[in-house]
Amino acid sequence: RKEVEQDPGPFNVPEGATVAFNCTYSNSASQSFFWYRQDCRKEPKLLMSVYSSGNEDGRFTAQLNRASQYISLLIRDSKLSDSATYLCVVLVYNQGGKLIFGQGTELSVKP
Amino acid sequence: EAQVTQNPRYLITVTGKKLTVTCSQNMNHEYMSWYRQDPGLGLRQIYYSMNVEVTDKGDVPEGYKVSRKEKRNFPLILESPSPNQTSLYFCASSLIPSPGQGVSGANVLTFGAGSRLTVL
Asked: Can you tell me the mean pLDDT for B18-27?
C-alpha cells in the first residue's frame, strides 16, 4: 500500500463546478500536510498548507481528519486556470523530516 | 529572485555515458532533495541532504550519486545511465523540515524547473 494515496483522476468538470479531492495517508506519525499544484511538465508549487482546524484561501478549502487519516481539497467555482495536477504531500517527521508525495490528481476544467 | 536552478533542462544521452545534473539554490536552505517523476508513479525521492556533507538515500537511490560540498549546490550524478533512468527530474530545497511548522516556511519545498532526461 502506498504511504500517500490519491485518486489519479482525471476529474473533468465544467467551469463553475465545485470539485473535491481526497487523499489518504498510512503513517500515523505524519505531522504536517500540504497541497501542491503542478501544471503540465512544470515544477510543483505550494498551493496551501492544511491545518488541523481546516483552512480556506479564496475558493480553496483544505481539511484534515487525523482520526481517519485523510485530507481533502475543495475547489469552488472552478476556473479554466485551475486545470492542473494536485499533489497531496505529507511530512513524516519520524523519518527525519521526510516529505512524501501522492501521485497526484489531475483536474481538467472545461468551458 | 529566490530560486532553485537546474541544468541541463533537457538532455538526451546514451547508455553508460556519465552525466551530472546540477542544482543550485540561493535561499541559504539547509535541506535539498532530488526527485524523479514518472507517469503513474508520482514524485519519488532519490537522495536528500540535511546539510553540507550530509546525504541520505531516498526511496529510489539505485544508479544515482549525490554530493553536498557546498550549501547551495547539490548535483545528481548518473555514473552509468540506463534507459530506465529516463525520467523528469526535480531538485528542491527548503529549510530543515520540522513538525508543526506548517506554512511558516520550514517545510515548504521550492522546486527547480525540472530536467527531462532521455537515455537511449
From this structure: 97
